[in-house]
From TrEMBL:
General function of this protein: Converts 2C-methyl-D-erythritol 2,4-cyclodiphosphate (ME-2,4cPP) into 1-hydroxy-2-methyl-2-(E)-butenyl 4-diphosphate.
Pfam families documented for this protein: GcpE, GcpE_C
Gene3D superfamilies: Dihydropteroate synthase-like, Sulfite Reductase Hemoprotein, domain 1
Gene giving rise to this polypeptide: ispG
Free-text cofactor note: Binds 1 [4Fe-4S] cluster.
UniProt pathway: Isoprenoid biosynthesis; isopentenyl diphosphate biosynthesis via DXP pathway; isopentenyl diphosphate from 1-deoxy-D-xylulose 5-phosphate: step 5/6
Any one GO biological process: terpenoid biosynthetic process
Catalytic activity: (2E)-4-hydroxy-3-methylbut-2-enyl diphosphate + oxidized [flavodoxin] + H2O + 2 H(+) = 2-C-methyl-D-erythritol 2,4-cyclic diphosphate + reduced [flavodoxin]
The entry's keywords: 4Fe-4S, Iron, Iron-sulfur, Isoprene biosynthesis, Metal-binding, Oxidoreductase
Source taxon at top rank: Bacteria
Database matches in InterPro entries: Dihydropteroate_synth-like_sf, IspG_bac, IspG_bac-typ, IspG_C, IspG_TIM, NO2/SO3_Rdtase_4Fe4S_sf
IspG TIM-barrel domain segment(s): 9-241
Designated name of the protein: 4-hydroxy-3-methylbut-2-en-1-yl diphosphate synthase (flavodoxin)
Provenance organism: Candidatus Ghiorseimicrobium undicola
E.C. code: 1.17.7.3
Length: 353
């Protein structure tokens, strides 16, 4: 499937460009108190290593806004300040070097306050995300129409102040409402869109809701940045976001494992084998090429090689050993116990070809 991306305006968040066909950026949110500079910086560094490209922090008071400068000196990805209720926190955050401000039209809406933020953001050359959330609507109804109207009227207000450096999100906890709201909005505006389903729940439920919601929109060509929200460690959000982008061939993050579901023919403990392989690929990803390699891991030799036709490289297990194949041809046999080591060795070489 070829996805034609929606034409959107180019916006710069620090050194990350979004919109106008730039790669869809992965965002996540730090989950420790922003005022605890050591803890938040250390979490962001881990997130960065995992593949997070833009990070957001909650700014709930002046100390948190002032912490931004020191946090930024310790990290290498753009930092977004998440502001609610108190417009002055946006001003302090910009003063302290935030690369983008997220405002919620439901709780910062007074013209004189928004104009001050817009003027300061314009001067600093940073974008504002108009982050509509169905759970905190003020003037409009908490439904699809209301979310779209809220975003458009806030954009009008910003444009009246001469501010055009805008990103938009329209998040709801209902997957179908979120999809509808983004689709409607996408027809009415060229500003880039940050996608997300809010309050999705635990990892299991949240990954599914996000994959459906964000995935459906991405498949439509809508979306310039994404955040998977989970009641879980932020690294899980980043991993899930990467999986969604990989599944739609929108980004490549190195080898993708295609493993069979197993059945009565399976000749190996494939579930554990794939888990171990996944762990190895994620801890040693720096040794591998970022080329989009499809790696098939199949439980039997009967259907394995055939089922793995779409893969670049893979293994199909037999009673005592496994058959390694590359570009649809058998390369060699390897012992089951050495499978992970051998696959990894082959992958390293394969990436260099
Ligand atoms: S590859 Fe073999 S073990 Fe895996 S599902 Fe197919 S038939 Fe079953």
């Amino acid at each position: 499937m070829n996805i034609t991306r929606r034409s959107s305006k180019e916006i710069k968040i620090g050194n990350v460009k979004i919109g106008a066909g730039h790669p869809i950026a992965i965002q996540s949110m730090a989950k420790v108190d922003t005022r605890n500079i050591a803890a938040v910086s250390s979490q962001i560094k881990q997130m960065q290593k995992c593949g997070c490209e833009v990070v957001r922090v909650a700014v709930k008071d002046k100390d948190a806004a002032c912490a931004i400068r020191r946090i930024k000196s310790k990290i290498n990805i753009p930092l977004v300040a998440d502001i609610h209720f108190n417009y002055e926190l946006a001003l302090f955050s910009i003063e302290n070097g935030a690369d983008k401000i997220r405002l919620n039209p439901g709780n910062i809406y007074k013209k004189d306050q928004v104009s001050k933020i817009a003027a300061m953001a314009n001067k600093a050359g940073i974008p504002i995300r108009v982050g509509v959330n169905s759970g905190s609507m003020r003037k409009y109804s908490p439904n699809v129409e209301g979310m779209v109207k809220s975003a458009l009227s806030y954009i009008n207000m910003l444009e009246d102040f001469g501010f055009y450096n805008i990103v938009v999100s329209l998040k709801a906890s209902s997957v179908s409402e979120t999809i509808e709201a983004y689709r409607k909005f996408a027809k009415k505006s060229r500003y880039p869109l940050h996608l997300g389903i809010t309050a999705t729940g635990t990892t299991e439920e949240g990954r599914i809701k996000s994959a459906i919601g964000i995935g459906a929109l991405l498949a439509d060509g809508i979306g310039d940045t994404i955040r998977v929200s989970l009641t879980a460690d932020p690294l899980e959000e980043i991993e899930a976001a990467k999986e969604i982008l990989k599944a739609l061939n929108l980004r490549s993050f190195g080898p993708e494992i295609i493993s069979c579901p197993t059945c009565g023919r399976c000749e190996v403990d494939l579930i554990n084998m794939v888990k171990k392989l996944e762990g190895k690929l994620s801890t040693a990803s720096s040794q591998l090429s970022t080329r989009p390699i499809k790696l098939a891991v199949m439980g039997c030799e009967v259907n394995g090689p055939g089922e793995a036709r779409a893969a670049d490289f893979g293994i199909a297990f037999g009673k005592t050993s496994g058959v390694l194949f590359r570009d649809k041809k058998i390369v060699k046999r390897i012992k089951k116990a050495e499978a992970i080591k051998e696959i990894f060795k082959e992958l390293k070489n394969y990436g260099k070809n």
